[in-house]
Design goal:
The complex is a heterodimer of chains A (about 350) and B (about 250). Chain A has two domains: about 240 residues, Thiamin diphosphate (ThDP)-binding fold, Pyr/PP domains (Rossmann fold, 3-Layer(aba) Sandwich), CATH 3.40.50; about 110 residues, Rossmann fold (3-Layer(aba) Sandwich). Chain A is built from twelve helices and 16 strands. Chain A starts with a strand and ends with a helix. In chain B, helix 4 packs across helix 5. The longest helix of chain B is centred in the C-terminal third of the chain and has 19 residues. The radius of gyration of chain B is 17 Å and the shape is globular. Classes of the chains: A alpha/beta (about 350), B alpha/beta (about 250). The interface between A and B is large, with 40 and 36 residues. Strand 10 of chain A pairs parallel with strand 2 of chain B. The structure holds thiamine diphosphate (TPP) and iron/sulfur cluster (SF4). Thiamine diphosphate binds next to helix 4 of chain B.
Chain lengths: ~350, ~250
């Protein structure tokens, strides 16, 4: 397949266009503004609509409106903007509207900084809005993977009628890599006549569709929440994705990490092997649903004495890893939340000290 | 014998939950009739607000979406941008449109979104039990202005139609009243015009409707009508504030 050298943000935009995105709404924020700058030039050529909204608050609801009438839609932002969208994410989930939301993370909290970060793990996986809802969260560790996750994001969002978030650290948006846009990931939008509020004539129907989340009856409200949970359970059964590395050895330590840190940690595993130290690694590609079972099994393997969760934040995924490991062995965190990416030798030194070498 | 009054097809049979004397029902009826007269029920999507009319979708017979408090114009923008062939309107109260949703309505108007906003100004927050709105009159008592709105503290009431008319982008902006039969024909004509402009792809349109909320004003419906006519209509003057031809 033909490969082209592209900046991550532009590749993400191109992937969305190829995946049939028909509406893209956003508000500028570093480090992802190139997505909008690419979209404004190329989405209309492909028959889609670009609009810069007045705020991320409004953008979230433009996505709701466009998704609610059945079109494939996307928005992109970074932490502060996603915070402003959190109300609309709750509404998207509640009204069961499929959409793809890209978060190219920067450091936080507050205004933070514009350097690469994984500061929004909690925000992405624990709701990031009010009420019992989940986003399906995918975390790419290369631009190729970001492209594929965006292309798969649209049909996944439709399959579950739920927003899908692509959670990329700043580097995914900013670096350049050769990418291809796999033909087999180009899908047709699903038929949404059963629920989309797109005008009765569009469906040749005299039955109207209403997208709502208000429910004043306690039984109805509980049933709605139950049906949402059943959907999230289906995601847990069907959509868990992860990559395992060096798990067929007698490793003493298991690394867990996601996104760009997996590339650094892959080097760490290789270098330690040269020294005669075996370290296993699991990289969740889906952060929700989380590969709990795989991590539990890997951490329970005879010989594995500890788990190290390496993140570009102060330790967020480490809580899910601890929950997965269920006390099989100690879980600790290593990382950086300032925007610097710890180099392999720093992580190796940390592992040496953990293993008393 | 034929029926003297035939319910619009665009309106549902479900009984409304509005208080006796409330004008929301009258406005629903006008919107429903206009949609029937224009024959656009099958290509209309309404966007409901958060406020007493949060259940508006129950009282119409066509597609609807709920928006969060104040965000209806953004939802309508999303619909209309990807489906310009649809007829899209928001139905919003004054807390929804003139307070929490000011950014959304101003920018939807300024971009010239081809949508229609039906704006119900009853000078109070109805649903939450009668708190002060940006449209509450000087001296008007509400649960959060128990001694009357103090304009030295919170400013004068906001005139949305005038405010939006200051924008350059072509628009149809009109204010009418729904408090007495004599105003209603004009109000309905304005709503119809607003939808027609949208269908012609001309402009953003908003019709502000001066309304009453007897329950939270603490008045009988009769006294509410009197107060609205004597106080509200002097400050919120009816008329067409902006026509698309002006551009
Ligand atoms: C984000 C948010 N803030 C506050 C509320 C509570 N709330 C519900 S309705 C309402 C006021 C509605 O008043 P108005 O728009 O004037 O409509 P009316 O009820 O008078 O028709 C408020 C503050 C909410 N639902 N959401
Ligand atoms: S509280 Fe006021 S606005 Fe709400 S239904 Fe009653 S009268 Fe109408």
């Amino acid at each position: 397949m033909e490969k082209v050298l592209m900046k991550g943000n532009e590749a993400i935009a191109e992937a969305a266009i190829r995946a049939g995105c028909k509406g893209y709404f956003s508000y500028p924020i570093t480090p992802q503004s190139e997505i909008a700058e690419y979209m404004v030039r190329h989405l209309p050529e492909a028959g889609g609509v670009f609009l810069q909204g007045e705020s991320e608050v409004a953008v979230g609801y433009m996505v709701l409106g466009a998704a609610g009438c059945g079109e494939r839609v996307m928005t992109s932002s970074s932490g502060p903007g996603i915070s402003l969208m959190s109300e609309s994410l709750s509404f998207l989930a509640a009204q069961q509207c499929p959409a793809v939301i890209v978060n190219i993370m920067r450091t936080g909290p507050g205004l933070g900084g514009i350097l690469p970060s994984q500061a929004d793990y909690f925000q992405a996986t624990k709701g990031g809005g009010h009420g019992d809802f989940r986003l399906l969260v995918l975390a790419p560790s290369s631009i190729q993977e970001a492209v594929e996750m965006v292309m798969e994001g649209f049909p996944l969002a439709e399959k579950y009628r739920n927003p899908v978030m692509i959670l990329g650290d700043g580097l995914i948006g900013q670096m350049m890599e050769p990418v291809s846009f796999p033909e087999h990931l180009i899908t047709r939008p699903s038929n949404k006549d059963a629920w989309a509020a797109n005008g009765m004539d569009t469906r040749n129907s005299d039955k109207r569709n209403v997208l709502k989340s208000l429910s004043l009856d306690p039984d109805e409200m509980h049933e709605h929440n139950k049906s949402l949970q059943e959907k999230y359970d289906r995601m847990r059964r069907n959509e868990i994705r992860y990559k395992a590395y060096n798990l067929d050895t007698d490793y003493e330590l298991l690394i867990t990490c996601f996104g760009i840190m997996a590339r650094v940690c892959g080097t760490v595993v290789d270098k330690l092997k040269e020294e005669g130290i075996e370290v296993g690694m699991i990289r969740p590609q889906s952060l929700f649903p989380f590969p709990e079972e795989a991590i539990r099994q890997a951490a329970s393997k005879t010989g594995c004495k500890q788990v190290l969760c390496v993140e570009l934040n102060m330790g967020q995924m480490v809580e899910d890893v601890e929950k997965a490991v269920q006390g099989a062995c100690p879980v600790t965190w290593y990382g950086n939340a300032g925007g610097a990416i710890p180099p392999p030798k720093e992580i190796i030194a940390h592992i040496h000290s953990l293993l008393n070498r | 014998m034929g029926k003297a009054f035939k319910k619009a097809e665009a309106l549902s049979d479900r009984p409304t939950h509005y208080c006796p004397g409330c004008t929301h029902g009258v406005i629903h009826r006008m919107v429903g009739e206009v949609i029937d007269e224009l024959g656009i029920r099958g290509k209309t999507v309404g966007v409901a607000p958060v406020g007493c009319s949060v259940l508006a979708h129950e009282y119409f017979e066509f597609d609807f979406m709920e928006a969060a408090h104040g965000r209806a114009p953004a939802v309508a923008t999303g619909i209309k941008r990807v489906r310009p062939d649809l007829n899209v309107f928001t139905y919003q109260g004054d807390g929804d449109l003139a307070s929490i949703g000011t950014a959304e309505i101003i920018h939807a108007a300024n971009r010239g979104e081809k949508i229609t906003a039906v704006f119900v100004n009853n000078a109070i927050y109805g649903m939450t039990g009668g708190q002060m709105a940006p449209t509450t009159m000087p001296g008007q008592r509400t649960t959060t202005s128990p001694f009357g709105r103090n304009v030295h503290d919170v400013g004068m009431p906001m005139r949305v139609s005038e405010l939006l008319s200051a924008l350059e982008t072509p628009a149809y902006i009109a204010r009418e009243a729904v408090i007495k039969p004599k105003y209603i024909m004009k109000a309905k004509r304005a709503i119809k015009k607003a939808f027609q402009y949208q269908m012609e792809g001309k402009c953003f349109s908003l019709v502000e409707l001066v309304s009453i909320c007897p329950t939270n004003w603490g008045m009988t419906p009769q006294n509410s009508v009197k107060w609205a006519e004597e106080i509200l209509l002097l400050y919120y003057k009816p008329g067409e504030y902006k026509l698309p031809e002006e551009m």
